[in-house]
Write a structure and sequence with these properties.
mainly alpha; 101 residues; 2 helices; single chain; 47% helix
Amino acid sequence: MADKESKTSKFVGLLQKGKNADAGQAFKDALRDKVASALDKARVAIAGKVFNGTQAEKHSDPKPAVTAASDRTDKIMDTDGKEIQFTPSAEAPTADAPEAK
């Protein structure tokens, strides 16, 4: 608190001496400190309201089940380790040829 009072008294002293440019800078310094202090108090109060009574959540989704590596490539497994039935179609997929511009 003594620091804020000294900046205010520095401002007043510079005004009395007629050093208006220096007084302007002293005023900005004092105001900057006062605003920063008020913002810090508000930040603490808001954080206390927002995070009061909440439980921490897990940081990620559950990890998928990992199956052992296999030489076979005709088996498809989902993330739970269960086999997915795959039936290939008789037709091969086709795509349109890109047009040159």
